[in-house]
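Protein in question kept in full:
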Amino acid sequence: MIFIRLVQKNVKTQFKNYLIYSLSMACSVMVYYSFISMSLDQSLLQRLHANRNLAATLQASGAMIALFIFVFMYIANSLFINKRKNELGLYSLLGMRRYQIGLMIFLENLVLGLFSLIIGLILGIIFSKLFSMMLVKALSLEMDSRFVFNLGAVEKTTRMYLIILFLVSLRGIYLVYRYNLIDLFRSATKGERYIKVTLFTWLIGFLGIFLVCLGYYRAAHLSDYTMILNQHYENGMGLFFGVIRILAYCVSGTYFIFYGFLPIVLVMLQKIKSFYYRDIHMITTGNLRFNFRKNAMLLGTIAVLSGTAIAAIGGATNVYSFGIEAAEKDNPVNFIVDETLSDELVTKLSSLEREKSNLEQVNLPITLLKGEFVQTFSEEQTTAKGPFNIISEKNYADLQAINPHLKTLAKLKETEVIYLEGVVYGGQGAWNRTFSTIKFEGFTSSFKVKNVMIDELGGRMRARYNLPTFIMAESQVDKLKGQKKYTLSFIRSHNKLSDEAVYKKVVRKFPPTKLRLIEDNDTIYEEKVPQAMVQRDDYLGLTREVVVARYPDLQNNRTQFGLLVYTAIFLGSIFLIATGSIIMLKQLSEAEEERSRYQMLRKLGVTQSQIKGSIYRQNALVFFVPIIIAALHGKYALVALSYLLPSSNQTLTWLARGIMLVIYLIFYLSTVSNYNKIVNKS
């Protein structure tokens, strides 16, 4: 009974110290339960039957959260045991056996763990509908989210958590049996509090700055760096090796900064007498030197992993923005159809609209013309032959009325053309391509490229043949009347019904049909692809679809990339909460050790406001130096990503950064408040 009462007393007295730990764990359990519950929600899975990856993605995200929980509990448990060295040593001196101390730690962990599990499950059950609604919104689905109590999710969550709790608790027992607790009691007073700055410290400190700056420079010039490595390795793996090298530079440089550069900065500040002897800066810098020496590995790891979380959130939001922009630019209107079916489609749409004036239609004739040109891209020269898509500048101007993405063209001369770049690599493909003189069949004179523009006509991937596309002067296109042509009708609908409803009522009634482009000697013609081959991706040849609707492409991108953003934001937020909690627990553990020193300062006449200011400054550096480095890592990771996925919409990325700042600001203010209470305790 005495033993049980001791456990109860310890849990009660330590509850305030464990509260942030318990709440962080409860938050992780809540999100884990919600993800598992949604992965088992049959109504949601049936609604997304086409996306087979939903359940797997949610369960994989749950596994990542479980890993975070294990790492967080492992580190937090180490901090708690380190904080209670004196207490555990005292128990040993008073005659408690090792198995009793180990069992006490095990039971304390079990009680706190079960408390976190119960609170997390309750919150997860309460907020599961909210998380489900957020997922439905992220995937742009039209369905009601139901409140569902999922017993299977409760069982999986409980089983996962208890396994982790058992493993972490066993480690506490292992520490008790590994060390002599009397020596552990004495170790609390051991250790040099100040770090010596040696030549080696200077070397690794400035090497860290150099490596991080080199990594940032390479990330900002990833295109050039990739080409250099491609020439060196001659295997097309330049991008892969470039990314690996940049990661190595930034990760190793981060640890060197915490081990070497920050202690150097603090030593240099101590040598500035006007700063060092003002207020109680000597105490602040002394504490920071000791903390950075003792926790360099932990703070460096937090900076690296937080940077990874920030990059993951920002990268996912960038991918989402890029995917939606790409779908909208390739489908600038509701429907792109072959002219032969436009009247039938308009009739069906008009029956829904009731007024034909709600429809806008522009036809785009495209001439298939043989030719040849030599191009230079990334210092590599190639020759392109075959049929090309030719569009007149007048038809391009007509299409501007219905396609908001098209830019106004300068007037073309008869021997000038504009090349529309289809593949944009890092936002630079269109600007790095140069052309030699271009020759087209049927023209004696040569042409030259006046300008290179991004292909934003629409329908490039499905409605048009995926061929090099040129814009030509109207007078020259008029001379091509004998050439093979196909005409696309761009139709915009202002229907009050949703895109999904219109798609189901109208477009699905058109059987999927593709046309294939055939070159037979000097003749170009089209033939219908056999119905059995329409759905096959491996069907050889250039093909185009006769009816293309915007809704399937846009919805597919919203579903895939929305799920990516949803999981990235939640996983990143959980991880940032975990790292913020670790820093907070570490600082509060340090506060217990520093309390006697601050009490001595008060006896020497230092005011409470001076002590409070020192606490604010000291904790600000410990909290925000890692997060500033992490934010810089995340920024340049996104700069490198923009080489592959150019995106002009950064709203979601800035929202993610705002979430990160709010999380750390809350932890910082809470830490300062509790730190101040601890050191000023009588």
Notes: The CA atoms of residues 322 and 648 lie 8 Å apart.
